[in-house]
Amino acid sequence: MATEKGRLFRVSDSQRFALGIFFTGSVSMILAFSFIEVNESIRWLPHVILIIFAIPLFCEMITVTRNNVKTNHKKPINTNFKKILKIGYLIIIILTLLFLLSPIYAQTLLKYHIGECAQSKTAKTDLHKLISEITRGYSNDTNKTKAILRWFDRDSGHIANTFGKEHLLKIYPLHVYMSEPYICIRLIKHENPLWVLKSRCGACNEYALLFMELANASNLTVRSIHNNGEDHIWAEVLIDGNWIAVDPSIVHLSENETGFDVTQMLNEEWWNISHTRALYPDGIIEDVTYLYTNLSNLTIITIDENKTPVSNVSIRVLSHNRQDEKGNIGIDTEINRTTDPEGRCEIKVGGGNYTIIGEKTEDNSYLSAKTTIALAENENNSAQLILKKDRLWWVQYLVSSLRPTFLILCSLGLWVFIVLYMGINNEINWVNENYDRIKSIEDKT
Hints:
Strand order of the largest sheet: 13-12-15-16-17-11-14
Order of helices and strands: HHHHHEEEEHEHEEEHEEEEEEEEEHH
CATH topology of the largest domain: C8orf32 fold
CATH architecture of the largest domain: Roll
Number of domains: 3
Number of strands: 17
Radius of gyration: 31 Å
Largest sheet: 7 strands, mixed
Oligomer: single chain
Number of helices: 10
Shape: flat
C-alpha cells in the first residue's frame, strides 16, 4: 500500500528548486537594495539581479515543456538534463553573489593597491623627476605655478579628464566610461594623491590633489579649497603674500583657459558658491567662503509643535546650486551646526537655493524637520523649522543598524537553501519513485 501522505512533493523537485531560488533571491535583493545605500548610477542593479534570479523559472518552464513533449511521443527522457540545469543555476547564483559583493572586495583590494603604488619609492622618485622637468628654467613662484598648470592641459595627453563622461559601470573607486579613458580607478576620498601619476585620469579631485603634490615638491606653499555643496575642488598658491586660486582641471590652452587666478571665474561665470573651506597640508581647516562670494546671513530657528524653542538640534544644509542631476536631491555642504538653548543658530553662506534639515534624538524620541529656502547675497534671512516627532524612528534606526546583517543573512539563507536541497534531493527522489511504483501496482490490481 502507498503511504497516505503520498509524494513528498506534489510538484517536481526542479520546480521547487527554481521557485526557491527565485523567491530567496528576490527577498535578498529587496532587503539589500532597500536598506543599503546605492549610488545613483547603479540604481538599475536590483532589476538586473532579479532578472538573473528569475532565469531558473524560465529554464524550468523550458524543462517542463520539453519533458511533456517527449512524454507525449513516448521518447525516453534525458535524466541528466535537469542535473545540467541545476549546475547552471548554481553557477548563475555564484556569479550573482560575486557581483553583489563586488563593491566590497573591489574597494578593499583597490584601496590596498592604490596605497601600495602611491606610497612606493618609485612614485616619489617619479614625482621629483617630473617636477624637475616641468619647472626647469623657472625660479619665481608665479612661473613655476603656471608651468605646473600647463602640464595639466587637456590637449597634452598627460591626464584624462573624466568630468561629465557617461558611466557604463561604477563600482567605487572603479569607473567604467562610455568614452576615453574607458576605465579609471579614481582616488578614494583625498587619500594617496600620487596614485594619479599612475592612473593618469580623474576629475577635479584628482587634478587638485596631484597639483598640490607637484607644487609642494617645487617648494610652493599651497592649500586645497573644498566646495562640497557644488561638488568641486581646486587649489590656492601663496604668491607674494597673496593666495591665488588655481584650477588645474579646467586648463585648456587652445581655448585660453590657463587655470591661473580663477577667483572671478568661480564667482561669476559658474554656479553660485555655497560654502568653501581651505585645507592646509598640516590638517588645519579654514572657512574661506568670503573670498569667493558675497555672504548671506541665515538665522535658523527650531521650535516644536507647541512653538517651544528646541535646543541642541543638529542642523545640516543641502545645496541645490548645481544645475545638473545632483541638484535635484541637494548636495551636502558639510555645514554642521547645533542650535543654542534658545533654539537658534547663525550660518553664513553664499546666495542660492538650499534645503535646511534639523534633527534631534532625545528621550526615546526622534524630532525632525526640513524646509527649502532661496537666499540672496548681502541680506539677512531666517528659516523656521517646526520639529515633529516620528513615532517609528526606532524602526528606521534598527533597519539602518542592521544593513550589513540583512545582506549577510540573505546570502547565507540562499546558500543554506541550496545545500539542504542538494543534500536531501536523492532521498526525496527515492521516496517519490517508490510511491509512484506502489501506486502503479495498486492501479493495475
